[in-house]
Protein backbone atom coordinates (compact mmCIF):
# COMPACT_ATOMS: atom_id res chain seq x y z
CA UNK A 1 0.00 0.00 0.00
CA UNK A 2 1.05 3.58 -0.62
CA UNK A 3 1.61 6.06 2.20
CA UNK A 4 -1.85 7.60 1.63
CA UNK A 5 -3.53 4.17 1.56
CA UNK A 6 -1.87 3.10 4.81
CA UNK A 7 -2.79 6.39 6.44
CA UNK A 8 -6.44 6.14 5.39
CA UNK A 9 -6.60 2.53 6.59
CA UNK A 10 -5.22 3.59 9.97
CA UNK A 11 -7.78 6.40 10.06
CA UNK A 12 -10.65 4.02 9.38
CA UNK A 13 -9.57 1.27 11.78
CA UNK A 14 -7.54 2.84 14.60
CA UNK A 15 -8.03 6.61 14.77
CA UNK A 16 -10.14 7.33 17.85
CA UNK A 17 -9.24 10.99 18.34
CA UNK A 18 -12.32 12.98 19.29
CA UNK A 19 -12.92 16.69 18.59
CA UNK A 20 -16.27 18.51 18.26
CA UNK A 21 -15.47 19.90 14.80
CA UNK A 22 -14.14 16.61 13.41
CA UNK A 23 -16.10 15.46 10.36
CA UNK A 24 -17.88 18.82 10.17
CA UNK A 25 -18.97 19.92 6.68
CA UNK A 26 -20.36 23.36 7.51
CA UNK A 27 -17.72 25.87 6.29
CA UNK A 28 -18.75 28.36 9.00
CA UNK A 29 -18.03 25.90 11.81
CA UNK A 30 -14.79 24.73 10.17
CA UNK A 31 -13.64 28.35 9.76
CA UNK A 32 -14.56 29.14 13.36
CA UNK A 33 -12.63 26.13 14.70
CA UNK A 34 -9.56 26.97 12.62
CA UNK A 35 -9.48 30.61 13.79
CA UNK A 36 -9.86 29.56 17.43
CA UNK A 37 -7.08 26.98 17.09
CA UNK A 38 -4.55 29.47 15.71
CA UNK A 39 -1.88 29.79 18.43
CA UNK A 40 -4.10 27.68 20.71
CA UNK A 41 -3.95 24.08 21.90
CA UNK A 42 -6.89 21.80 21.01
CA UNK A 43 -7.65 21.18 24.69
CA UNK A 44 -8.01 24.90 25.35
CA UNK A 45 -9.85 25.74 22.13
CA UNK A 46 -12.45 22.98 22.55
CA UNK A 47 -14.51 24.84 25.19
CA UNK A 48 -14.33 28.15 23.31
CA UNK A 49 -15.55 26.51 20.12
CA UNK A 50 -18.54 24.93 21.86
CA UNK A 51 -19.43 28.23 23.55
CA UNK A 52 -19.30 30.10 20.24
CA UNK A 53 -21.48 27.51 18.48
CA UNK A 54 -23.98 27.58 21.37
CA UNK A 55 -24.23 31.38 21.21
CA UNK A 56 -23.85 31.80 17.43
CA UNK A 57 -25.09 28.61 15.68
CA UNK A 58 -25.12 30.34 12.27
CA UNK A 59 -22.72 32.86 10.72
CA UNK A 60 -25.55 35.42 10.66
CA UNK A 61 -25.86 35.11 14.46
CA UNK A 62 -22.19 35.99 14.84
CA UNK A 63 -22.47 38.85 12.34
CA UNK A 64 -25.40 40.39 14.21
CA UNK A 65 -23.89 40.01 17.67
CA UNK A 66 -22.60 42.97 19.65
CA UNK A 67 -18.83 43.32 19.70
CA UNK A 68 -18.77 43.30 23.50
CA UNK A 69 -20.49 39.91 23.72
CA UNK A 70 -18.16 38.32 21.15
CA UNK A 71 -15.02 39.69 22.78
CA UNK A 72 -16.26 38.52 26.19
CA UNK A 73 -16.64 34.96 24.84
CA UNK A 74 -13.15 35.24 23.32
CA UNK A 75 -11.67 36.41 26.63
CA UNK A 76 -8.65 34.33 27.65
CA UNK A 77 -7.73 33.15 24.14
CA UNK A 78 -5.43 36.10 23.46
CA UNK A 79 -4.39 37.43 20.05
CA UNK A 80 -7.56 39.55 20.00
CA UNK A 81 -7.00 40.63 16.40
CA UNK A 82 -8.26 37.16 15.49
CA UNK A 83 -11.57 38.00 17.13
CA UNK A 84 -11.83 41.34 15.32
CA UNK A 85 -11.16 39.62 11.97
CA UNK A 86 -13.71 36.95 12.88
CA UNK A 87 -16.41 39.60 13.27
CA UNK A 88 -15.36 41.49 10.13
CA UNK A 89 -15.46 38.35 8.01
CA UNK A 90 -18.77 37.14 9.45
CA UNK A 91 -20.34 40.51 8.65
CA UNK A 92 -18.82 40.63 5.17
CA UNK A 93 -20.18 37.17 4.29
CA UNK A 94 -23.58 37.97 5.80
CA UNK A 95 -24.05 41.38 4.20
CA UNK A 96 -22.06 41.09 0.96
CA UNK A 97 -22.37 37.40 0.10
CA UNK A 98 -25.94 36.82 1.33
CA UNK A 99 -24.65 34.65 4.15
CA UNK A 100 -23.11 32.10 1.77
CA UNK A 101 -19.57 31.05 2.62
CA UNK A 102 -17.39 31.01 -0.54
CA UNK A 103 -16.36 27.64 -1.96
CA UNK A 104 -13.44 28.95 -4.04
CA UNK A 105 -9.91 28.87 -2.55
CA UNK A 106 -8.86 32.31 -3.81
CA UNK A 107 -12.09 33.92 -2.59
CA UNK A 108 -11.75 32.29 0.84
CA UNK A 109 -8.11 33.40 1.00
CA UNK A 110 -9.15 37.00 0.36
CA UNK A 111 -11.26 37.09 3.53
CA UNK A 112 -9.86 38.90 6.58
CA UNK A 113 -7.84 36.73 8.96
CA UNK A 114 -7.61 33.76 6.59
CA UNK A 115 -4.24 32.56 5.32
CA UNK A 116 -3.26 29.67 3.01
CA UNK A 117 -3.51 27.04 5.78
CA UNK A 118 -7.02 28.01 6.89
CA UNK A 119 -8.22 28.42 3.28
CA UNK A 120 -6.92 24.93 2.44
CA UNK A 121 -8.59 23.48 5.54
CA UNK A 122 -11.99 25.00 4.66
CA UNK A 123 -11.77 23.88 1.02
CA UNK A 124 -10.72 20.40 2.03
CA UNK A 125 -13.00 19.69 5.00
CA UNK A 126 -16.11 21.52 3.81
CA UNK A 127 -15.96 20.84 0.06
CA UNK A 128 -13.52 17.88 -0.19
CA UNK A 129 -11.42 19.90 -2.65
CA UNK A 130 -7.85 18.57 -3.23
CA UNK A 131 -5.87 20.99 -1.05
CA UNK A 132 -3.22 19.65 1.33
CA UNK A 133 -3.43 21.05 4.86
CA UNK A 134 0.07 21.47 6.29
CA UNK A 135 0.49 22.15 10.01
CA UNK A 136 3.14 21.18 12.57
CA UNK A 137 1.80 17.63 12.81
CA UNK A 138 2.03 17.20 9.04
CA UNK A 139 5.56 18.65 8.91
CA UNK A 140 6.65 16.12 11.53
CA UNK A 141 5.03 13.09 9.88
CA UNK A 142 6.38 13.89 6.41
CA UNK A 143 9.85 14.77 7.69
CA UNK A 144 10.23 11.52 9.61
CA UNK A 145 8.66 9.12 7.13
CA UNK A 146 10.27 10.55 3.99
CA UNK A 147 13.56 11.59 5.64
CA UNK A 148 13.38 15.32 4.89
CA UNK A 149 16.27 16.96 6.74
CA UNK A 150 15.67 20.48 5.42
CA UNK A 151 14.41 22.89 8.10
CA UNK A 152 10.61 23.11 8.03
CA UNK A 153 10.68 26.86 8.65
CA UNK A 154 13.25 27.69 5.96
CA UNK A 155 12.21 29.04 2.54
CA UNK A 156 13.49 25.90 0.84
CA UNK A 157 11.87 23.67 3.45
CA UNK A 158 8.45 25.27 3.09
CA UNK A 159 8.62 24.67 -0.66
CA UNK A 160 9.77 21.04 -0.28
CA UNK A 161 7.13 20.16 2.32
CA UNK A 162 4.36 21.92 0.41
CA UNK A 163 5.19 19.97 -2.75
CA UNK A 164 5.48 16.67 -0.86
CA UNK A 165 2.18 17.30 0.94
CA UNK A 166 0.42 17.91 -2.39
CA UNK A 167 2.04 14.84 -3.95
CA UNK A 168 1.08 12.59 -1.01
CA UNK A 169 -2.52 13.84 -0.82
CA UNK A 170 -5.32 11.38 -1.57
CA UNK A 171 -7.01 13.83 -3.91
CA UNK A 172 -10.40 12.09 -4.10
CA UNK A 173 -10.55 11.80 -0.31
CA UNK A 174 -8.86 15.05 0.66
CA UNK A 175 -10.96 15.76 3.76
CA UNK A 176 -10.46 12.29 5.19
CA UNK A 177 -6.73 12.26 4.31
CA UNK A 178 -6.01 15.68 5.84
CA UNK A 179 -7.82 14.76 9.05
CA UNK A 180 -5.95 11.45 9.14
CA UNK A 181 -2.45 12.88 8.78
CA UNK A 182 -3.06 15.61 11.38
CA UNK A 183 -4.49 13.09 13.85
CA UNK A 184 -1.64 10.68 13.11
CA UNK A 185 0.88 13.37 13.98
CA UNK A 186 -1.00 14.33 17.14
CA UNK A 187 -1.52 10.81 18.52
CA UNK A 188 1.15 8.50 17.01
CA UNK A 189 4.01 10.50 15.48
CA UNK A 190 4.18 12.81 18.50
CA UNK A 191 7.02 15.32 19.05
CA UNK A 192 8.84 13.93 22.10
CA UNK A 193 7.50 10.43 22.66
CA UNK A 194 6.18 8.97 19.39
CA UNK A 195 4.61 5.51 19.43
CA UNK A 196 7.07 4.02 16.96
CA UNK A 197 6.82 0.42 18.14
CA UNK A 198 3.10 0.26 17.28
CA UNK A 199 3.23 2.58 14.25
CA UNK A 200 1.79 1.23 11.00
CA UNK A 201 4.42 3.22 9.09
CA UNK A 202 7.53 2.01 10.92
CA UNK A 203 8.71 -0.35 8.17
CA UNK A 204 8.61 2.53 5.67
CA UNK A 205 9.76 5.29 8.02
CA UNK A 206 13.19 6.76 7.25
CA UNK A 207 13.61 8.23 10.74
CA UNK A 208 12.75 4.97 12.49
CA UNK A 209 15.04 2.86 10.30
CA UNK A 210 17.91 5.34 10.58
CA UNK A 211 17.52 6.05 14.30
CA UNK A 212 16.66 9.71 13.66
CA UNK A 213 13.17 9.94 15.14
CA UNK A 214 14.48 12.23 17.87
CA UNK A 215 16.19 14.52 15.34
CA UNK A 216 13.37 15.18 12.89
CA UNK A 217 11.87 17.51 11.93
CA UNK A 218 14.57 20.19 11.87
CA UNK A 219 13.73 23.82 12.63
CA UNK A 220 15.91 26.87 12.03
CA UNK A 221 14.21 29.16 14.52
CA UNK A 222 14.59 26.80 17.47
CA UNK A 223 17.74 28.71 18.37
CA UNK A 224 15.61 31.75 19.20
CA UNK A 225 14.28 30.03 22.32
CA UNK A 226 15.73 31.42 25.54
CA UNK A 227 15.51 28.19 27.52
CA UNK A 228 15.85 24.73 25.96
CA UNK A 229 15.27 21.43 27.72
CA UNK A 230 17.55 18.55 26.70
CA UNK A 231 17.31 14.95 27.87
CA UNK A 232 20.30 12.90 26.76
CA UNK A 233 19.66 9.16 26.89
CA UNK A 234 22.92 7.31 27.55
CA UNK A 235 22.03 3.95 26.01
CA UNK A 236 24.43 1.19 27.05
CA UNK A 237 24.77 -2.42 25.96
CA UNK A 238 27.49 -4.16 27.97
CA UNK A 239 30.57 -1.92 27.62
CA UNK A 240 29.36 0.04 24.55
CA UNK A 241 27.36 3.27 24.42
CA UNK A 242 25.37 4.80 21.58
CA UNK A 243 26.98 7.94 20.12
CA UNK A 244 25.58 10.29 17.47
CA UNK A 245 27.38 12.99 15.47
CA UNK A 246 25.37 16.21 15.13
CA UNK A 247 24.82 17.38 11.56
CA UNK A 248 22.31 20.16 12.27
CA UNK A 249 23.51 23.62 11.31
CA UNK A 250 23.96 25.01 14.82
CA UNK A 251 26.76 25.82 17.27
CA UNK A 252 27.28 22.11 18.00
CA UNK A 253 27.56 20.98 14.37
CA UNK A 254 30.01 18.06 13.95
CA UNK A 255 30.21 17.49 17.72
CA UNK A 256 29.01 14.23 19.24
CA UNK A 257 26.26 13.47 21.73
CA UNK A 258 24.10 10.71 23.21
CA UNK A 259 20.52 10.05 22.07
CA UNK A 260 18.85 13.43 22.49
CA UNK A 261 15.20 14.15 23.25
CA UNK A 262 14.34 17.86 23.34
CA UNK A 263 11.06 18.89 24.94
CA UNK A 264 9.12 22.17 25.02
CA UNK A 265 8.83 22.19 28.81
CA UNK A 266 11.02 20.85 31.58
CA UNK A 267 10.53 17.08 31.74
CA UNK A 268 10.10 15.50 35.15
CA UNK A 269 11.37 12.06 34.26
CA UNK A 270 10.54 9.02 36.34
CA UNK A 271 11.17 5.33 35.79
CA UNK A 272 7.72 4.70 34.31
CA UNK A 273 7.96 7.55 31.77
CA UNK A 274 11.44 6.47 30.68
CA UNK A 275 10.37 2.85 30.26
CA UNK A 276 7.38 4.06 28.23
CA UNK A 277 9.57 6.15 25.90
CA UNK A 278 12.04 3.30 25.34
CA UNK A 279 9.18 0.89 24.68
CA UNK A 280 7.43 3.29 22.29
CA UNK A 281 10.53 4.17 20.29
CA UNK A 282 12.59 0.99 20.46
CA UNK A 283 10.32 -1.84 21.71
CA UNK A 284 12.82 -2.49 24.48
CA UNK A 285 12.77 -2.59 28.28
CA UNK A 286 15.83 -1.30 30.17
CA UNK A 287 17.65 -3.46 32.70
CA UNK A 288 18.37 -0.41 34.85
CA UNK A 289 17.83 3.36 34.81
CA UNK A 290 19.77 6.19 36.41
CA UNK A 291 18.76 9.87 36.15
CA UNK A 292 21.36 12.58 36.68
CA UNK A 293 20.82 15.87 38.47
CA UNK A 294 20.02 18.81 36.19
CA UNK A 295 23.00 20.45 34.51
CA UNK A 296 22.77 24.02 33.20
CA UNK A 297 24.79 25.89 30.60
CA UNK A 298 24.29 29.59 29.90
CA UNK A 299 25.09 30.51 26.30
CA UNK A 300 24.98 33.99 24.78
CA UNK A 301 21.35 33.86 23.65
CA UNK A 302 19.97 30.77 25.33
CA UNK A 303 20.15 28.62 28.43
CA UNK A 304 20.38 24.85 28.20
CA UNK A 305 18.87 22.77 30.99
CA UNK A 306 19.87 19.14 30.65
CA UNK A 307 19.52 15.77 32.33
CA UNK A 308 21.30 12.54 31.47
CA UNK A 309 19.40 9.26 31.65
CA UNK A 310 21.60 6.19 31.76
CA UNK A 311 19.76 3.10 30.54
CA UNK A 312 21.33 -0.35 30.55
CA UNK A 313 19.88 -2.47 27.73
CA UNK A 314 20.17 -6.19 27.05
CA UNK A 315 20.51 -5.60 23.29
CA UNK A 316 20.94 -2.79 20.79
CA UNK A 317 17.61 -1.38 19.53
CA UNK A 318 16.91 -2.43 15.94
CA UNK A 319 16.80 1.12 14.58
CA UNK A 320 20.14 1.97 16.24
CA UNK A 321 21.87 -1.37 15.70
CA UNK A 322 23.95 -0.19 12.75
CA UNK A 323 24.74 3.20 14.26
CA UNK A 324 27.87 4.09 16.27
CA UNK A 325 28.43 2.26 19.59
CA UNK A 326 31.72 2.89 21.39
CA UNK A 327 33.58 1.96 24.55
CA UNK A 328 34.23 4.68 27.15
CA UNK A 329 37.91 5.07 26.25
CA UNK A 330 36.93 5.65 22.60
CA UNK A 331 34.22 8.11 23.61
CA UNK A 332 36.74 10.22 25.56
CA UNK A 333 38.65 10.86 22.31
CA UNK A 334 35.68 12.53 20.60
CA UNK A 335 34.53 16.17 20.75
CA UNK A 336 31.29 16.91 22.61
CA UNK A 337 29.19 19.94 23.62
CA UNK A 338 30.30 21.24 27.01
CA UNK A 339 27.44 19.71 29.03
CA UNK A 340 28.05 16.26 27.55
CA UNK A 341 31.79 16.64 28.08
CA UNK A 342 31.18 17.55 31.72
CA UNK A 343 28.95 14.50 32.18
CA UNK A 344 31.53 12.17 30.62
CA UNK A 345 34.16 13.74 32.89
CA UNK A 346 32.19 12.52 35.90
CA UNK A 347 32.64 8.91 34.79
TrEMBL record:
The HhH-GPD domain, residue ranges: 36-187
UniProt cofactor(s): [4Fe-4S] cluster
Xref: PROSITE patterns: ENDONUCLEASE_III_1
Annotated catalysed reactions: Hydrolyzes free adenine bases from 7,8-dihydro-8-oxoguanine:adenine mismatched double-stranded DNA, leaving an apurinic site
EC number assigned by the record: 3.2.2.31
Function comment: Adenine glycosylase active on G-A mispairs. MutY also corrects error-prone DNA synthesis past GO lesions which are due to the oxidatively damaged form of guanine: 7,8-dihydro-8-oxoguanine (8-oxo-dGTP).
Family note: Belongs to the Nth/MutY family.
NCBIfam families assigned: mutY
Protein name listed in UniProt: Adenine DNA glycosylase
Species of provenance: Arachidicoccus soli
Amino acid sequence: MSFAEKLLHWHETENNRQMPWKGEKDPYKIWLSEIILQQTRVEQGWRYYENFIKNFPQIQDLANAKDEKVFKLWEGLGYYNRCKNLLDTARFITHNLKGNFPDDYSKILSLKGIGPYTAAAICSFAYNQPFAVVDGNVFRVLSRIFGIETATDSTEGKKIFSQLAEKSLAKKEAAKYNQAIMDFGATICKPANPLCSSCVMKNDCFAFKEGKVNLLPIKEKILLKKIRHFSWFVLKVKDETFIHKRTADDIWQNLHEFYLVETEAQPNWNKKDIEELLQNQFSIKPLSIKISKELIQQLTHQKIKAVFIEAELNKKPGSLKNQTWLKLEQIRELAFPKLVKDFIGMK
